[in-house]
Write a structure and sequence with these properties.
Thrombin, subunit H, about 100 residues, about 50% strand, single chain, 1 helix, about 15% helix
């Protein structure tokens, strides 16, 4: 298998919610980078589906991201690539990832 990731990825367990075309569900983000994440959850999604993802970072920070489904792991969850976030949310996410990497 060829590794396609270009950015550092961290293992986390962050509460999240996602909303797709037909479903809205609670979830957990278990793998995270500045470009995307894995969403551990039930519910059906389709490849290339756009979803709205809400991730709860520590210290009561919440970021809202538009994402595209890039891979589905049936009955486990799905991987997304972030497609849109504000500059402030990008900075929050980048800071959280760097702090987590530095602490490990």
């Amino acid at each position: 298998m060829i590794e396609r990731r270009r950015q550092p990825r961290i293992e986390v367990n962050l509460p999240a919610r996602w909303e797709g075309v037909l479903t809205e569900r609670a979830a957990a983000v278990t793998s995270l980078s500045i470009n995307g994440c894995f969403v551990l959850t039930g519910g059906k999604v389709a490849p290339k589906e756009l979803i709205r993802l809400e991730i709860n970072l520590p210290d009561n920070q919440v970021i809202y991201l538009w994402s595209e489904v890039v891979e589905e792991a049936e009955e486990i969850g799905f991987a997304v690539r972030f497609t849109s976030m504000s500059d402030e949310e990008h900075e929050q996410l980048d800071r959280f990832i760097k702090q987590t990497l530095a602490a490990s």
